[in-house]
Amino acid sequence: MAKATAETPLMQQHNAIKARYPDAILLFRVGDFYETFGQDAVNASTVLGITLTKRNNGNADSSQLAGFPHHALDTYLHKLVKAGYRVAICDQLEDPKQAKGIVKRGVTELVTPGVATNDKLLEHNSNNFLASIHFDDAKMGIAFLDISTGEFFIAEGDKEYADKLLQSLKPAEVIFQRNKQKIFKEYFGLKFFTYGLDEWIFADAYAQESLLKHFGTHSLKGFGIEGLSAGIIAAGAILHYLKDTEHPNLGHITSIQRIDRDEHLWMDRFTIRNLELFGGADGSNTLLKVLDNTVSPMGARLLKRWMVLPLNDITKINERLATVEFLIKEVDLRNKITLHIKQAGDVERLASKVPLKKVNPREVLQIAKGLQQTEAIKLFCENSSNDYLKRLGDSLNPCKYILDKILKEINENPPALASKGGMIASGINEELDGLRKIASGGKDYLIELQQKEAAATGISSLKISFNNVFGYYLEVTNIHKSKVPDTWIRKQTLANAERYITPELKEYEEKIVGAEDKIFQIELQIFEKLLNELQDYISPMQVNGHVMAIIDCLSCFANNALQFNYKKPALNDGFILDIKDSRHPVIERNLPIGESYIANDILLDPATQQIIILTGPNMSGKSAILRQTALITLMAHMGSFVPASDAKIPLTDKIFTRVGASDNLSGGESTFMVEMNETASIINNITSRSLILLDEIGRGTSTYDGISIAWSIVEYLHNSKAQPKTLFATHYHELNELENKLSTVKNYHVTNKEVGNKIIFLRKLAPGGSVHSFGIHVARMAGMPPSLIDRSNEILKQLEDSRESKDINESVKQLSTPKVQLSIFDAHSATFDEIRTLLNAVDINRLTPVEALLKLQEIKEKVK
Fold first, then answer.
1. Which one of 228, 600, 628, 741 has the fewest beta carbons within 10 angstroms of its own beta carbon?
2. Do both 333 and 450 map to the same domain?
């Protein structure tokens, strides 16, 4: 049956555009509103909390509708994307006044979490990466792009390496071949916002062509990525996706950089999680929070990257350390440079907004201010005596020509939007100045004209007025009608006056009415021309932003060293790790006021003390000692000073940690399975430069299994050719026996003292194994009932008494059941029956207080 009414032209247009973007919410511009229809409207109203209405769209059926004012786009777009939706913005492509028939419309941008450029969608201190993965047979190619800064990275490696990069750089969105959805979920889980693309996009020739065309080069040799075929395919897919999402203006993506596994200290995702670099249990007590005292957004973003990708080149590390040392001494220089960096704004993201055509007049002026700060920083760096700072200063470019041009052409207080007008300074364009004079000084001009005409004609009562019918006019009373010149044109006759227009008045009227439009057009032309010229300076401005970020991070390290009493670590090519008075950088910042952190010495030497077996009471600080050893090593490789009085750190290629246990129930894995997977990953990847931290290995299974596995792990690490430096914290005191059997295994314990029946943790490391685990003491501190604690001590005594003569199973079989339990249910059963009979016989209403006390005494005697 045919429909009663055909679709309206507007809905036909909407449906045709929606068909091209079926998986996105389409924001369809109608007049001053963005409208959504059908399921899009249902989704939008739910997320945004806007009213869902129904209206007749030309069909017999009604359609859901939800909309919001166009000026509220930023606010609502932010909410939709954060809720995980792809959003297609469909704008009017022509002026509705000029349109013949229906206004031409088209999608101007498709916004997804990975291609967001709006400030409200971005965290200023974090990169917003779009990642792409190409699943090759031999290896994986992976690429990361932050469209808001222009940073583009490429890498290749196995599943583990790709996983580490994804966990470290935390992309907002990951794209891959649509038919690899199952593999992606299996390898990397469900934590990422993903989008599948057609298979043909992931082709070598297409990717090569896309990259060469984008960079305008004949080969990719200059970027050092020519051999990375799988990585190039991933990078090519990113460029395709940007084209797909209506992002054609990519002039700020000027280079692509390789992330080489061998150039960085390796930490797998377990280590990044276990060391709580970014996200502790409550999200606040993290290494990043303690160390990040940068003053600029680009500095904060770079510090985060330095943390997950620490250097593995001793020359580069020492270069950073020497600069930090220099900045500590040069307090005045450091403070001045830091102040200039702070005032520069987010140089990287501001520069990227120019080619994206998202920059407003206020931001252009901030770009100029950033260039002014660049000029000052360059001068300070070049005049310093530190070689690295001099080199950094030399690479800064104040872009003098464009800096002067912006300051000359843009007003001191420009509007936030170009459409508001008033952004171009006076004296730049003669016509513009003339029009402004007309627009702002119209009254003065009219007064002058009135006085001039009155003097010329002798009409003293002459008035100039305005109406909507014929604009400006001269009004003459009937008394002076005879004095009106022939050149005046009569437009209206009143009872006691006549109204006239003159050629001069008409000319002025045309000028004043069109002045505002012309002013806006001229300003826009000047602004567009300025932005076109600014495009040529994107690359040097990005370099400026990166250099400022480096100096910001190094200055931050210097401030941290002074504020927190960090010392310069000595990195070396040897294998001995020797840290005096080591402290945990995060825990010490969160201690109660007045309490100081108990520092400890750590020595790991493959020749004499390769493995430390660390025992001690629960809650005594074993895990903290393990973590601080790793964090100090990590901080040294970042180029930071460390929380210790002296630190000799060997160049380390990998830090492995197995700390704590958590069930991966969603993946169907138990605590023990997770523990064994992580430990296997460590055992299979160790080298002589690795640092291994193992905490309570084997506790997820039975005691005998656990001891057996822990024992064999220590033996394996001891006998390995690599001889990796290892800290092994355990509650299995049986492992202390290994010190007598293996030459480079040494026992240490965390000291404590007992005061009465309480235990005080001294948190100090001492040679030798610990005798007790003090678990019962910890249970008492946690508030367990006294009866439960007494029973625990009773069982412990029985087990310890029988340990010499029997195995543990026999000892458990011989445990006596609790006396209290027997007395309640057996021996006293008859007594309770007697008491019950006695109480039933008592008439409480007639009982005197003295009789009540005597009865109570009688009952008490029975239960003795």
1. 741
2. no
Rank 235-249, 448-462, 828-842 by mean pLDDT and report only the highest. 235-249
Percentage of the chain modeled with pLDDT above 90 = 46
Q: What CATH number should be reported for the domain holding residue 66?
A: 3.40.1170.10
Average pLDDT over residues 192-214: 94
Within the chain, what is the greatest distance between any pair of CA atoms? 139
Length of the chain: 864
Cβ neighbors of 186 (< 8 A, separation 6 or more) are none
Q: For strand 151-157 and strand 140-146, is the pairing parallel, antiparallel, or unpaired? A: antiparallel
Domain with 382, as residue range(s), is 297-399+537-564
Out of 228-242, 530-544, 775-789, pick the least confident: 775-789
pLDDT at 280 over 50: no
Q: Give the whole-angstrom CA distance, residue 197 versus residue 245.
A: 12
Q: Which of 583, 533, 582, 286 is nearest to 409 (CA)?
A: 533
Strand order in the sheet with 577-582: 570-572, 646-650, 577-582, 600-604
Looking at the fold, whether 576 and 557 belong to one and the same domain comes out as no
Is the pLDDT at 788 greater than 70, yes or no?
Answer: yes
Phi, psi (deg, nearest 5) at residue 773: -95, -15
pTM: predicted TM-score of the whole model, two decimal places:
0.82
Pairing of strands 600-604, 577-582: antiparallel
Please tell me the distance from the alpha carbon of residue 830 to that of residue 824, in angstroms, as a whole number: 11
Residue 805 belongs to some domain of the structure: yes
Distance (Å, whole) CA 788 – CA 11: 74
Q: Are residues 322 and 178 in the same domain?
A: no
Say yes or no to pLDDT of 392 above 60: yes
671 and 765 share one domain: yes
Report yes or no on 424 lying in a domain. Answer: no
The 8 Å CB, 24+ separation contacts for 468-474 are 470/501, 471/501, 471/506, 471/509, 471/513, 472/446, 472/501, 472/505, 472/506, 472/508, 472/509, 473/499, 473/500, 473/501, 473/505, 474/450, 474/499, 474/500, 474/501, 474/502, 474/505
Residue 242 burial by Cβ neighbours in a 10 Å radius (0-12, 13-18, 19+): buried
Strand order across the 266-267 sheet: 266-267, 654-658, 690-695, 725-729, 611-615, 745-755, 758-767
285 assigned to some structural domain: no
Q: What is the mean pLDDT of the chain?
A: 85
Q: How many CA atoms lie within 13 A of 225 on its CB side?
A: 27
CB 113, CB 81: distance < 8 Å:
yes
DSSP E strands, 346-496? 463-467, 471-477, 489-493
Number of domains in the chain: 7
Q: Which residue has the tokens 């006695």?
A: 838
d(CA 697, CA 711): 10
Judged against a pLDDT cut of 60, whether residue 438 lies above it is answered with yes
pLDDT at residue 823, as a whole number: 44
Is pLDDT above 80 for 510? no
442-457 helix and 430-440 helix, angle to the nearest 10 degrees:
70
Assigned domain for 498 exists: yes
Of all helices (H) and strands (E), which one includes residue 725? strand 725-729
DSSP reduced 3-state for 280: coil
* Angstrom distance (rounded) from CA 158 to CA 163: 9
CATH number at residue 595: 3.40.50.300
CA nearest to 635, candidates 307, 300, 269, 270: 307
| DSSP H or E segment with residue 156 | strand 151-157
Cβ–Cβ < 8 Å for 62, 56: yes
